[in-house]
Every structure is written in C-alpha cells, then in structure tokens.
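EI: anyone free to look at a 337-residue chain?
SC: sure, send it
EI:
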Amino acid sequence: MTSALTQIERARGFLEAATLSEDWILRMGQRALLLEAHYTTHIEGTQLTLDQAEKIWEGEPVENTDPDDQQELLNYRDAFHHVGDYLRGGLPITESLIQEIHKRLVQNVRGDQGQPGRYRMVQNYVVNGKTRKVIYTPPAPEDVPALMGQLTRWLGTETDIHPVLVAAIAQFQLVHIHPFVDGNGRTSRLLSTLCLYKSGYDFKRLFTISEYYDRDRMAFYNAIQNVRNVNMDLTGWLEYFVTGLATQLDEVTGRGKKVILSDFTVKKHGLNERQAKVLQWFVEHEQMRISQLEILCPAVNRRTLQRDLKIMLEKEIIDEVGVGPTDPKRYYRLAEL
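SC: here you go
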C-alpha cells in the first residue's frame, strides 16, 4: 500500500510540474471523462461498446442500443459536471450533495425505478449475478439516514489519514450502506472521485479508475466483499484501490512523458503542423497507417503526406514496418528516441 501511495505521489508531482500543453490536457480530460462514464456504467451492466459510447457522447444517433444504456452514459456526464460546479464553491460533502449526485445518475432511467435522490424505504440485497444467492444484506432502511449522516460528518472532519485512503474508505462505506434502491455503485465511485478532487488529488482530471475495475470485475467485487468476510478489515480493499489508482496514473504519466518528448522533437527538428500531428497520434497509439494520417489531415493529398513521413523517416523520428510502399500492411511506429 505504501509503495502504491508513493507511485501516486510521484504521478501527482510529475503532472503538477510537467509542462503539458493546455490543448492536450483539455482533450485528454474530455477523453478521461468519456472513459469513466463508459466503464462505470459498463460495470453496472450497460451493453454499449466504447465506439457506441463515443458516438452517443458526440450526439450522434446509434441504432440497436438500449435507450436506458444511452441515458445512463449521459447522466454520468451531467453528475460529473455538477460535482465540478460544487467543488468550485469550496463547500463540504453533504448528504444532500450525495443525494443530488444519485438523482442525476439514475434520472429518467428504467422508469425511475432507482428512485432518484431518495434513500431507500425497503430492504435490499446484493446477490451473485450467476447463482442469485444473497451475498450481502445491507443495513435496514430505517438505519440509512443515521449511517449516511455519520459518513458525511466523518468526511468533514480533519484527519491524518492519507486523502487517497479517505477516498477509498468513502467509496466502500457508501456501497456498504447501500442507501439507494439502485445506482449505489456509480454513486460510490463518483463520491471517491469527488473526495480526491476536493483534497487536491485531481491529477488534472486525466485518470479513469473505473477502467481498472472493469478490466477484472470479479477482482473488484471480491475486494469489496472480502472486507465483510474478514470482520470489516478494510486493508485488502485499500490495497486494491491504491494499486488500481497507481496503475491508472502510471498510464497517464507515460502519455504525459510522450507529450513532452513530442513537443521537444517538434521544436528540435522544426517539424510542420502535419508532422506534429503524426507525433501527437503516437501519444495514444502504437502505430499509424497512411490511411489514418489521411483522416487526420483530410484536406491534404496523399503524396504530400507521404513526403512528410519520408522526412520523419530520414530524421529517424519514426520507423517504417513493411516491405515497400505497395505493401498493404505497411505501417509506421515511433523510433527509439
């Protein structure tokens, strides 16, 4: 856990000190928001592909998809922006804020069965998706208001606990209380993000923790359930949370270092705008084909683009993989700079 926290602090220091272009930060921040919206809803069972999510995000029609799945994706964006507005006011995390987050997350989805923004008045259960066996019985509904009050008071109290661990505890506690009929997982994950942002650990809003959870959902579920299996010892969950965050931030810093290298290379070799776009592509991708460059520069003819690539090959900025210009499988990759 200490090792992961050290990684997180290093990533935080790098992102605060690094000279990264505002344009890149804006684009990657928007991308991270899309990915978080996609993966946090995917964990809960939505069937959208990432490609479909991207189109819905841009307002494009996507056929043969569940309208509720689309609405959940867009609801996350609305809830996230509300959190951003709230943070600018410097206000504490309250029950009413958490209820508003929940309301925005489940509004207009599945006939409002999740009772947007309202604590549950019935006993609910967490069941195994395959066996339908009950694996956890949350507190009785009459206990929910007191437990939520206790949680928000704790979040407003000065503590020596590391802010990343506070965020992890908040996420577990909310999903453990299970205060709502539906949408507890999404609300708990956005609450942990809010806690990180509020304590100065926003990492320029470039990370997406739910992507880590969705890669191995069983490990994610087990990390939560195992706390209950060991008499509410949170150690295993905290280790899982900080490891996941450290992993995601390593990816962010890796891309950030590529951006710095890209900017340096553009200046060193006096590359033109099109050639700079090639380098920008390699920040997010391992290889490029000429057809992809044509999409990036739609108003430029292929011969000009091929000349750009040839210049970058001569300067040993990129490598060519293939057996000649007529090879349909030919592609380009970054050289070992």
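EI: The beta strands are 126-127, 134-136, 318-321, 331-334.
SC: 👍
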